[in-house]
């Protein structure tokens, strides 16, 4: 008698393969300078991902106690994500690969979680951890979702702290040989799953033992191990200090030319990175945003430029999506403006809105999740609008279309278009948004396809479109440290900034554009990012 489970696996593989073969993006992926591209056509593939955790003690993708697996995969695709950064722990596959999920849940003494898993996804309880991990990846593939495999920790558990013995090569739970063994196994194991497009070496290197010498040694060994076992994969490399710092590469680049066009760097950023959290409410917002972005450029962003640009994947960033953290709220507007302006690849932290067991707490909530606790609805109704432009590809290296700009208001996620009164009004960034040309400070903001430019009239008046493109009223400059205020002078020489007020764009007195420590008003209603694009 033919094994029905085997037939099911074969049919699922055929379905996944056929699905990806039918997509405009063919796999595998490669790199071209700072872009991730389709290895066959050379067309850019932008990664707009969400993190999904499997590296905690149950060693099972979170949420299978809340919703059927197929529902979760559908949620990911329907929310505009095209990939998942899927975490795993080294010990999952070196020490516990053949343990069943049900036995592990029993050993953790969390019967409520087991009962809920049995209700929504009973099949995983009799699977080994490897089989359960495979099942999730297969379901993601069936929904057209790419997967980047992230080696998050060695010993399963919450990450991360300076002294958890889980952070750097040679730590108690980070034996380099066992780690290399796991990388080789996983890279080889997923050779035949086209939706698996990338593997990371390790999440957030850190701790008292971190040093550059060992970083170069083991990063090189790990990258070559992955590439040898599965040369189709992109290889993601993280930096020191919780994956926030690659500055040492300025003096000594990493020599991995034998990887071909498969090397991608990844970085992480939060409002609290490098202890910056409290500064968002203690210092002027323009200053803190400028400092944050300059620090990101100095430590990691430089990798996207220079003589040898490389893709940089922001594989973790996120905020409390309940809106209760003022620091997070201010930070998010700043970082969304940067991501939109660079059109970089990213993975939001996070998908999972609950945990089977996290730090001794059963069924704990995750406020950074896009979903509510039951994995049914969005946690924050503003999420789709705020993220719609950064989820889409705006720059294409092989496009023949001329460069233009969309004018993004990062606080709201809206773009703008001209109405029949020659004034600006809110627009969806993906449909109907105006395209603008701008040649730098002192230049007009010209609406492409017309002979009109944006003009300032006075305080509180709408910004209008006019054929006057040469006067100071149409000469626009970025005037704050954050580089996100657009200002021009009226006929009397008074300077005003664009500001979103309701559904209108007015010109008003600029908020805190001088670097004055006493000016603590929130200027973000006046922040606008000119987002480069050469896409339809």
TrEMBL record:
Keywords: Glycosidase, Hydrolase, Signal. GO terms for molecular function: hydrolase activity, hydrolyzing O-glycosyl compounds. The keyword Signal applies. SUPFAM superfamilies: (Trans)glycosidases (SSF51445). Belongs to the glycosyl hydrolase 5 (cellulase A) family. InterPro entries: GH (IPR017853), Glyco_hydro_5 (IPR001547). Residues 67-352 form the Glycoside hydrolase family domain. Residues 1-26 form the signal peptide. This is Endoglucanase. One of its GO terms (biological process) is polysaccharide catabolic process. It comes from the Eukaryota.
């Amino acid at each position: 008698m033919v094994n029905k489970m085997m037939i099911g696996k074969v049919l699922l593989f055929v379905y996944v393969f056929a699905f990806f073969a039918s997509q405009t993006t063919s796999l595998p992926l490669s790199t071209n300078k700072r872009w991730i591209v389709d290895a066959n056509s050379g067309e850019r593939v932008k990664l707009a991902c969400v993190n999904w955790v499997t590296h905690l003690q149950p060693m099972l993708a979170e949420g299978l106690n809340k919703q059927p697996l197929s529902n979760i995969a559908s949620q990911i695709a329907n929310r505009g994500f095209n990939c998942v950064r899927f975490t795993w722990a080294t010990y999952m596959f070196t020490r516990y690969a053949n343990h069943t999920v049900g036995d592990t849940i029993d050993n953790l003494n969390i019967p409520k979680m087991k009962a809920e898993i049995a209700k929504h996804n009973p099949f995983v309880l009799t699977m080994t951890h490897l089989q359960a991990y495979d099942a999730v990846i297969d379901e993601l593939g069936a929904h057209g979702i790419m997967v980047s495999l992230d080696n998050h920790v060695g010993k399963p558990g919450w990450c991360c702290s300076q002294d958890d013995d889980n952070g750097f090569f040679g730590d108690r739970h980070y034996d380099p040989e066992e780690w290399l063994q796991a990388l080789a196994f996983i890279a080889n194991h997923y050779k035949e799953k086209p939706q698996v497009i990338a593997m990371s070496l390790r999440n957030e290197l850190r701790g008292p033992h971190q040093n550059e010498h060992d970083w170069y040694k083991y990063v090189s060994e790990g990258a070559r191990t992955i590439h040898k076992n599965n040369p189709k994969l992109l290889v993601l490399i993280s930096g020191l200090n919780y994956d926030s710092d690659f500055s040492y590469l300025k003096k000594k680049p990493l020599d991995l030319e034998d990887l071909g066009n498969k090397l991608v760097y990844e970085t992480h950023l939060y409002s609290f990175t490098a202890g910056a959290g409290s500064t968002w409410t203690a210092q002027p917002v323009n200053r803190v945003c400028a400092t944050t972005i300059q620090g990101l450029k100095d430590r990691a962003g430089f990798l996207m430029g220079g003589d040898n640009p490389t893709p940089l994947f922001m594989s973790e960033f996120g905020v409390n999506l309940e809106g209760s953290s003022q620091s997070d709220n201010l930070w998010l507007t700043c970082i969304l403006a940067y991501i939109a302006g660079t059109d970089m690849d990213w993975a939001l932290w996070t998908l999972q809105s609950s945990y089977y067991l996290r730090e001794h707490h059963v069924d704990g909530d995750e406020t950074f999740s896009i979903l509510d606790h039951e994995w049914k609805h969005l946690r924050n109704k503003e999420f789709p609008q705020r993220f719609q432009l950064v989820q889409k590809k705006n720059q294409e290296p092989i496009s023949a279309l001329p460069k233009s700009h969309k004018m993004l208001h990062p606080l709201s996620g809206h773009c703008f278009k001209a109405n029949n009164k020659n004034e600006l009004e809110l627009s969806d960034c993906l449909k109907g948004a105006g395209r603008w040309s701008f040649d730098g400070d002192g230049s007009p903001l010209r609406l492409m396809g017309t002979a009109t430019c944006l003009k300032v009239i006075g305080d509180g008046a709408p910004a209008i479109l006019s054929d006057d493109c040469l006067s100071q009223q149409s000469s626009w400059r970025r005037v704050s440290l954050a580089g996100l205020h657009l200002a021009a002078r009226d006929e009397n020489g008074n300077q005003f900034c664009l500001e979103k007020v309701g559904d209108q764009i007015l010109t008003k007195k600029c908020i805190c554009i001088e670097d004055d420590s006493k000016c603590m008003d929130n200027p973000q209603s006046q922040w606008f990012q000119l987002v480069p694009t050469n896409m339809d």
